[in-house]
Amino acid sequence: MRKIFIIMGVSLFILFAGCEKDFLDKKPNKALLVPTTLNDFQALLDNNIVFNVSPALNIIAGDEYTVTNNGAGLNALQSNTYYWADDIYQAATAITDWDIPYKQIFYANIVLDGLGKIDRNINPVQYDNIKGSALFVRSFAFYNLAQLFAQPYSPASANTTPAIPMPLFSDVNKRPGRGNLQQLYAQLSADLKIAVELLPATSQFKTRPSKWGCLSFLARVYLTIQDYQNAFEFAEKSLAINKDLLDYNNLDANAANPFPNTLPNGNLEVSYHSENISYAFVRSAIVKFNTDLTNSYVQGDLRKNMFFIPSNGRFRGYVGIANDEVYLIRAESACRLGKLELAEQDLNFLLTKRYKTNTYVPTNGMEQTDLLKRILLERKKELVARGLRWTDLRRLNQDPLTAITLQRKRDQVDILLAPNGLKYTFPLPNTELMDGIEQNPR
Amino acid sequence: MKKYLNLILLQLAFFIIASVAFAQFKITGKVVSNVSNLPIEKVSISINESTQIVQTDSEGKFTIIAATNGILTASHVGYLDYTVSLKAEPNAQTLLIRLQPNTQQLSEVTVISTGYQKIPKERATGSFAQVDNKLLNRRISTDILSRLNDAVPGLIFNHESGARANSISIRGQNTINANDQPLIVLDNFPYDGDITNINPNDVESITILKDASAASIWGARAGNGVIVITTKKGLLNQPLQISFNSNLTIGTKLDLYYTPIMSSVDYIETEKKLFAQGYYTTLETSVSKQPLTPVVELLIAKRDGKISASEADRQIEQFKDFDVRNDYNSYLQRRSINQQYSLNLKGGGQFHRYYLSSGYDKNLSNLIGNDFSRLTFNLGNSFSLINNKLDIATNVLYTNSRTDQNSIGISNLGLQGRDLYPYAKFADANGTPLSIARNYRTNYINELANNGIGLLDWNYRPLQELNLSDNFSNSFDYLINTEARYNLIKELDISMQYQYGKTSSKTENLNNADSYYTRNLINEFTIINPGMPIERPIPLGGILNYSDQSSIRNNLRTQLNFNDKFGEKHSLNALAGVEIRDFNIIGNSYRIYGYDSEHATGKAVDYVHAYSNFVYPQSNNNLIPNRDNRQELTDRYLSYYSNLAYTFDDRIIISASGRIDKSNLFGVNSNQKGVPLWSMGSSWEISKESFYNLTWLPYLRIRATYGYSGNIDKTLSAYTTAMYYNGNDIVTKQPYANIINPPNPELRWERISTTNFGVDFKLFDNRFGGSIEYYAKKGTDLIGETAFPHYTGITSFRGNNADIKGNGIEANLYTKNLNGVFKWSTDYLFTYASDEVTNYKVDGTVSKFLTYLNTPQVGRPLYAIYSYNWAGLDPSNGNPQGYLADGSISSDYAKVIAQTTASDLKYNGRARPLFFGAMRNNVSWNNFSLSVNISYRLGYYFRRYSVQYGDNYGLGSHGDYDLRWQQPGDEQRTQVPSIPLTPNTNRDSFYLRSENLVEKGDHIRLQDINLSYNLSKLGIAKLPVRNLQLYLYANNLGILWKASKSRIDPDFQASLLPRTLSIGVKIDF
To answer: Could you tell me which residue ranges the SusD-like N-terminal domain spans (chain A) (predicted)?
Structure first.
């Protein structure tokens, strides 16, 4: 009897100690999943409340909108942004334009860290798709942040200009510094090029990244850093996958929404869907589109009535990454690289789809500077409210030929934003200024 | 299931037969003093150190049943124990026992249980409080926990606004975000079932473990203290004893007039005023056909000329006489009646003992339609085998309870988010149920009915609803304990314990086909197109909500126990063990539409497509509510523990304990480190020293302990956790997930250190005695928030980074005031419990301080009341006034609120009592005994409610409306602001959160009285039973004194506990 007890007791001790790890690895709550499987990671990336959202303060700060009535009734953040105030955020502690992209980065990092613990051979296709997607969405977020919170990219000073905090891991206790813009874009382009290899040519839903969208985005990134050769090449590669454009002649401007719904898979032009953060600014009765912009559409241009709801002038186009942008990138890059014929070809191809049939007069043999100016004008008119204008201003202002001064009026006082002004860079939110992170000059 | 029942019954039958079969014989004897030769009364006689004890009568005589080869022990306070071996002969024996007085030993032996061992209280160094069976049974209740009220110092039931029912703190609260309730241990293992499942009649005693030395053996879950419940067991060598206990408790109706509300007259006058100002135009013209009160409907009809002005006014005047609370009292309330029956059998032979009980409770709540019933069975058996070397015990507890929840709460009778009008009527003069306005306008509903388009009746008649819903939950709870203990060698035991517990409960909520809920939902989804048949996406029939939950608990423990004496003076008690615990919950819920209870069938609905609301098709995105859900939770623990006590000469004790907890709730790093929670303690019985000669203080013992216990926050996870959305993304139809918790490999339990000093004493012939303790606690590594830079992906981080400290004094004293025929004794409980947040990384905002009582602020108690500084009413217009940042008095409430920072707020004081306790006087005379309990709580504050004018002049708000400022000079008599000229929500927020409404909570309460009449066979030979007790018990008697002039009971601000009166009988056969 005694022996039996001793044996039982000892074996129980051994049993407890032996199975300790398995026993304690059990998940406390099944709904609170610890993301470990490919499906878990896909579910995280499919959260389109977190992903598929882009900053929008840059749209408010840009030159597409005009505020009347001195901005009375606008919320402080939006009013301060529009008037380029010194202290934009005041006491605000959550700046969505900052927080949302960093949340995207956090999710992507969790996925990327988690993928490191999974054997790719289980399902190579899904694995690659998820890895490519995570790299894409992370790069997309870094890029968006840099357009607001880092100074404009200039090839001459990129290696000394502070970038933004760039976490490449999911450990929230680590504190990456700001790095510089050259590092940032090197990381972006490298990650995106990996993603290109991993992603499927097109995706099942426009909320998911694809090779097509990734190549288009690479073209955008290279355009931003004024690497026109690469911008041209990636635009080419993107259009090689899909070169579709909507023909606005086939759309009904009188419909509630003339454009086919992007989601889940409607708009053939859009390669990646991303909505602007929704600010009341764009729905306010005292906010109108800049008349310079709305007046720039000439007779026969279908876009005016498509983009701007006739009754109230509000915008209703599509957002995200679309082929019209890629055509314009290829056209601009080609023009800058001296391939004027190619540039004209793209411009004319795009505009034929935007003008009432037989009203568009194609350009022919324009001189380089004029052609560039024309392409840039069409870029402004075509990519309304896509969040690209601010980036364009920051880039084009570096060349005196294309530089412009922005102007506001408040209480009869003119407020100016000169080319390359410090206010082209948003300050970092107050919550971020710890652990050696420095504020942007303003 | 049936198989198990058969097994249990078979087992039961076997054990009873077995116990009768063992040889037994009767021993009689007499005990006298060795010095005086006089007989000694109340000497305890036991055999084989078993728990069966008989006592000598006034002539020193006793009779006991014994088995062969037993050792008989006679013991009495003040005498040395006497033992004798019984001869192995079946004949009756007569013994004469002489006891030697022991002048040093005067104490009674109380055995406390930690869940791991049972030790005499004298040998414990830590802070234990024992609630014995007598004290437990002083109160009458359905549940066991409420019997701890006023039973031990340091333990308090929290009643601050927002406190959960039965929220208990032992020695204050030592956590901010984690679990704040003590660990409940039932028969050696943590009990995670529903505590109301335990029948108090089965409980023998409760031990409260308060300091680290007492509790640290429970490790990471002991930080809030431990409540150890021990159920009754049979005794060896005891003939069958049967006890029956029954009582009936009657309670008053809920006092609906406790919180004053605006009178019907004022309500109607305010409605008229609002109507004249067009306040109801929006509601009247709303596309969603918002419901309106009868008076407003009459006013509309009058305006539109649909009814004559005089007739409208006449009808409106009539409403002024109604008070819906009267109807509520007569139709929806009753006196509560609680019945309790309990029967138990216990006994044992030489090798076997058993305890068998059954209990039944039936409670009819004071809300008609709410009932509770509970059936409990308890079956315990234990055997001593192989020359008492092997003990095997099994115990089965079974509970089945049913809760019915069909009452119509008065707060549920609102109009689309607005309160019910006070002049509503539930029935006409003949008692016929009347309808009241609910979701849509009465006129609109009537119009639809007249159109005869096929909708279901849309009227809401509260009285009818009582019978149209069937909401109940049913809970089954099993607890099976098995224990084997084997004596390896003389000093060393090994024991194995296994406990299996299962609670399965189901809740059914059937909205009958005719119930308003069902009719309303069906109607709202109904589609009627001209010329087309009526279409009902929600089918006709009832709507059944079902949910079930089953929790399964597995505990396995192996423990070595070592007890030895070295030489004359040294003894060592040690134990070490390992235990694993697995706690698993699975929950499911679903809903069946078109339910036919006759045949238990339902009909399918389309959860995917969106429908338009019948009343206002503009709302076109309504999905049929889907209640399908499933949940699975698992807690796992693996723990190693040890406890050691060294005793020198029965005078000095040194104790130590340690425990390592690992859990699937902790981070990987924390599990790997295996940091133990530990304690050390020591006690010194000074009165046993040779130099000690204070005869007036015959017993004096001092104790000191220090150590750590832990606490767990189950809402956190060490892993990156995400939550799947139950339901697909609208556009892509793909499942998606959210990250809700960043990874935290360092996540660990909270640590609470306690230093405890205690002194136990008895004076003047044991006429006065008790214990006094001082403690200091420090909670470190508490779960708190830290702000993180948002670029990490999160905005704040919950981790082990907050600290709190507390200290207190507890006294548990008794005096024996009179000791003759008329006996009078008093028990005093006193507690001082203070706490302070010492480290918190996130500053609270003004609105948090004013809204949540437990917003941490460094340097302040965790539960505190803050308010706006109050500058009185403006004498010219009765506006409340506050202060601006520059100190000036202002009625610009937006500015006052905006300029008040967290540090400008007035700190009124604690929201939980700093001092509390009770005084219990016990008087007995002949067969009567009376016990009166007076409790007190001091040193805290509460915020009372008052009128909120909102945008409708305080329509339907608090009754302080009556006391409002109305003309200059009123500010002398009232602090209730005037009706504002224009609605101003800031004015309301300022007033309702001002110091003017903060009151002192200090009060003294006559809690309860117990009167009993006892008859015993010892006194009356003719009595057909051994003992007979008749008792009366009155509870919640009322407040004797309070500091605040407000009529609010500081501990029951929302509603008073009804007074109850119980009558009962207890019979021992």
So the answer is: 22-223
